[in-house]
Design brief:
Length: about 90
Amino acid sequence: MAQVRLPRQRSSETVSVLVGGYAGRVTVVRPDDRPPQVSLMAGAHGSTVAGFADAIGTAISLGLANGAGFDDYRVALELLGLSAEQLGRG
């Protein structure tokens, strides 16, 4: 399957959260007619927490692109201290 180039400007929503005591941000990009993309940022650049947060965001985005729903990630996100209300799903 060929990679499709997305438009440079897309609608998104960013929410400030606490992840394991670290300030962070969750950005959800909703391209037209495509699954949402999730970016999770926390901790200082280059830290273990930042790497873990980036990996979780990538894993969620890949799962959503392959048919998983938000409920499939609810438990994992709650373990990180993120609630459905914080993510705009409450």
